[in-house]
Amino acid sequence: MKQVLRWVSPLLQSPDRDRVYDILIQHQPSLPYVIRWLEENRPLMNPKKWRILANIEELPRPLAYALVAYAVEPKRERINWPKKK
Questions:
Q1: What's the rounded Cα separation, in Å, for the pair 46 and 83?
Q2: Dist. CA 68–CA 71, nearest whole Å
Q3: Cα 74 → chain centroid
Q4: How far is Cα 62 from Cα 80, in angstroms, rounded to an integer?
Q5: Helix, strand or coil for residue 59?
């Protein structure tokens, strides 16, 4: 659980996006898992950003993590765990 929060918390809350990118590269979370966290915590994100993130799995990992790091706007809100489907 702590491993997950080490990359989710900065992704959703930290204003330093370069640091978020470094953390994503370090932890290498699976991209569908990242998208699932974003769906749960940023449902009202700009539709243009969701279109960019839609085909993220086809990109090389460093580029995909960079898109995730810079597309998500940081907000100091409670982090919700994704629901089981």
A1: 22
A2: 5
A3: 10
A4: 26
A5: coil
Integer Cα distance of 39 and 22 in angstroms: 22
Q: What is the DSSP letter of 81?
A: P
pTM higher than 0.90? no
Q: How far apart are CA 61 and CA 13, in angstroms?
A: 22
Q: What is the pLDDT of residues 3-55, one digit of tens each?
A: 667 889 999 999 999 999 999 999 999 999 999 999 999 988 899 999 988 88
* CA dist., res. 59 & res. 43, Å (int): 23
pLDDT score, position 84: 80
Q: 9: which 2 tokens?
A: 């918390």
